[in-house]
UniProtKB/TrEMBL annotation:
The chain crosses the membrane at residues 42-64, 120-141, 153-173, 201-226, 263-282, 312-329. InterPro entries: MetI-like (IPR000515), MetI-like_sf (IPR035906), UgpAE/MalFG_permease (IPR050809). The keyword Transcription regulation does not apply. It comes from Kitasatospora paracochleata. This is Arabinogalactan oligomer/maltooligosaccharide transport system permease protein.
Length: 340
């Protein structure tokens, strides 16, 4: 009788039975998976490729260049220059490691922590106030009121107008001598304020202007979330005797959590780096009272003896702060059961 040599190897059996136990499942490696994905979805990769290339050129390269410059002593004197058609001065800056970061964080004359404190205060104030205003207006516009479409259009205008146009308009309105705001207060018999030159009023003014620019985004996003909530939930709550506040607290807010969490994250990142409002309204003044981290980095790079290396280090620190915030914020949402 012939013996089948292909079964001469011992076969492992499962415990307590005669069925052979299955060995470890073999999976294709990462290169194999990548080739399979490229072969199966080549059209999708073809459509995405131009966007990836553009992002790599416009975002990736400047980011890498900024990281490199942050470890150098590059400034206006030792950078590469081209004077006319014949004189070329090569760059002479050198690598200094992490000294830019240590000077910014722990230097004797550093103002990083003061700027960070005001930036956090500014961000929290703007995001909180704009979210409350946007949520309130969204709830009002979600009801059937006469002229609702007109109100929606008018309330979106601050968001539609370019930020620099709105900021210049507010700068004129808040002018101490010729501004409309002080003239209106005088006409009402109320005290006037030096909106842009008094330290406290300047901080209040920049928050007001940024809230004016930010609340329409919150309103539009929240309004879309409100319209996706089934009306049957409110009808059932009314039958159970729930009042308007109970319906808002137990139905509206939980249903808006996915949208509101994303809105808060985006608003925080945008506000933290809101350069136009500060630069065009107060230019960081009076003194440094309204100076944000991003405007301080700009001044390092483009005023006086331009310090490109130190300014790049400021930019990297800003990026790290926002990345840490985004990671912590996302993890806290996951713990609460939110899904992104």
């Amino acid at each position: 009788m012939a013996v089948d040599t292909t079964t001469s190897q011992p076969t492992a059996t499962a415990a307590g039975g005669d069925t052979p136990a299955r060995g470890p499942r073999r999976t294709a490696g990462t290169p194999g998976r990548l080739r399979l994905a490229l072969g199966k979805h080549w059209y999708a990769w073809t459509l995405v490729a131009p966007v990836v290339i553009v992002i790599a050129v416009l975002v990736g390269y400047p980011l890498v260049q900024g990281l490199y410059l942050s470890t150098t002593d590059a400034n206006d004197k030792n950078s590469e220059k081209q004077i006319g058609d014949f004189l070329h001065i090569p760059a002479s800056y050198k690598n200094v490691g992490l000294s830019n970061y240590t000077d910014i964080l722990f230097g004797a004359h550093t103002n990083f922590w003061a700027r960070l404190g005001w930036t956090v205060t500014w961000t929290v104030s703007c995001v909180a106030v704009s979210f409350v205003i946007g949520l309130t207006l969204a709830i009002m516009l979600n009801r059937k009121v006469r002229g609702r479409s007109v109100y929606r259009t008018l309330l979106i205008l601050p968001w539609a107008v370019p930020a620099f146009v709105s900021t210049f308009s507010w700068r004129f309105i808040m002018n101490n001598d010729r501004g409309f705001l002080n003239h209106a207060l005088q006409a009402l018999g109320l005290p006037t304020f030096d909106w842009l030159n008094d330290p406290t009023m300047a901080q209040i003014s920049v928050v007001m202007v940024n809230v004016w620019l930010a609340f329409p985004f919150v309103m539009v996003a929240v309004l879309g979330g409100l319209q996706s909530i089934p009306g049957e939930l409110y009808e059932a709550a009314e039958m159970d005797g729930a009042n308007a506040w109970q319906q808002f607290w137990n139905i509206t807010l939980p249903a808006l959590r996915p949208i509101s969490s994303t809105v808060i994250l985006l608003s925080t990142i945008w506000t933290f780096n809101m350069f136009p409002v500060i630069f065009l309204l107060t230019n960081g003044g009076p003194g440094d009272e309204t100076q944000l981290l991003v405007t301080a980095a700009y001044q390092k790079a483009f005023t006086g003896l331009r310090q490109f290396g130190e300014s790049s280090a400021w930019g990297v620190l800003i990026l790290l702060i926002l990345v840490v915030f985004a990671v912590v914020y996302r993890r806290s949402l996951r713990k609460q059961g939110e899904v992104w």
